[in-house]
Amino acid sequence: MPYSDVDVKVYDYDVAKARQLLDFAGWKLTAGKAIREKQGKPLSLLLSYNINNAGEKEIAELLQADFKEIGVELRILGEEKQAYLDRQKSGDFDLQYSLSWGKPYDPASYISSFRVPTHADYQAQKGLRNKPEINLIIGELLITPDETLRKKLYVNLWKTLAEQAVYIPLTYARTKAVFSNELKGVGFNQSQYEIPFERMYFSSK
Domain Solute-binding protein family spans what residues (predicted)? Predict the structure, then answer.
């Protein structure tokens, strides 16, 4: 992916460190309770997902188990796609999946959506103190004709988001195809949304 080979801060999977940070933030695990509390309020988060996506449900359940291990309740909510999208627009979530479009649209299309209030990425970032700065960086890199400056701005953007820990990288999705062995020339373009039928043909028997 263009402009993505950047050395950013990586957060290792460290259960002990996670517990330590929660303790330091005042979220204490009292005797006899499985969920941490602060001033009598339980540490509970909501993760919503598209109920028609089996992969998202499976990942949500794995995350739920990991969060429970450190004393955090992760409530997972499967919703019909439109309800899920409406929740993205309103920002009524603590965690939600974020998917990019892939080549040839990204990273420009993906980061452009960061400035649109109806996107989950905007809602996830709007509480950041430097959100105005992030928007300015995006606006400038999308219009600058200077390749050197564009690369510099992308590095700044990725490092800023990594430092704020807005995103938890999970997985790469693969595009799959099921076809008869008589059909030849099956493959993919850069974009998963464009199927190159013009290259496919049936072999003669």
Answer: 3-119
Q: What is the pLDDT of residues 132-184, one digit of tens each?
A: 999 999 999 999 999 999 999 999 999 999 999 999 888 777 778 899 989 99
CA distance 21 to 12: 14
**Alpha-carbon torsion 88, 94, 95, 98, what sign?**
positive
- Residue 3 lies inside a defined structural domain of this protein: no
Model confidence, pTM: 0.81
Separation in Å, CA 40 to CA 21, 43, 102, 118, 137: 19, 10, 44, 33, 40
80-94 pLDDT, tens per residue? 999 999 998 999 999
Q: Are residues 168 and 181 in the same domain?
A: no
